[in-house]
Design brief:
By secondary structure, the protein is mainly alpha-helical. Helix content is about 70%, strand content about 0%.
Length: about 170
């Protein structure tokens, strides 16, 4: 293995990720290029090892998304939203968050930011699944919840708008 390959294979998920989880995720990333079954097993193993580690959800829904396994990606991102909301002590229902947005500061910590980022992922998954109306609803809610666009959801909004024009 060359230094470049090592660099390409190592992914920084978060600086505070538990070492045992990080090792499994790194192995999963390495396996994902050649052995999808092993990679998936490792991603799931990491999540089972520490179901509170949000990066395990992120890694798994990205894995499914890039393999066009959109139903599984959606299921995983919904679980990520639930876990982030539980840890952040705010409702997981983004529509309720919008209605009660003055109660919640979604810029207050990493968990809330993870929630916003995962909500953006859900919008993208819906868009890729041909559920443009559902994607638009989520993106509209994201504009309310993330007016500074820290999650980068404007990119998905622009894509959705471009697809509507076609």
């Amino acid at each position: 293995m060359t230094a470049l390959q090592l660099f390409e294979e190592s992914v920084l998920f978060a600086p505070n990720i538990p070492e045992a989880v990080n090792q499994i995720l790194q192995s999963a990333v390495s396996a994902s290029h050649d052995d999808e079954v092993t990679a998936e097993r490792l991603f799931i193993k990491a999540r089972k090892l520490d179901s509170h580690c949000l990066q395990t959800y992120f890694a798994l829904y990205k894995f499914y998304f890039y393999r066009a396994r959109l139903a599984e990606a959606e299921s995983t991102v919904l679980a990520a939203l639930e876990e982030a909301a539980r840890q952040g002590r705010f409702p997981s229902d983004y529509k309720r968050l919008v209605r009660e947005k003055e109660k919640w500061n979604l810029y207050s910590n990493e968990v809330a930011h993870f929630y916003l980022y995962s909500l953006k992922a859900l919008a993208f998954i819906k868009l890729r699944s041909g559920q443009a109306i559902e994607a638009r609803v989520i993106l509209t809610c994201l504009q309310e919840l993330d007016p500074e666009d820290r999650s980068g959801s404007s990119v998905i909004s622009d894509l959705a708008s471009a697809l509507e024009i076609e």
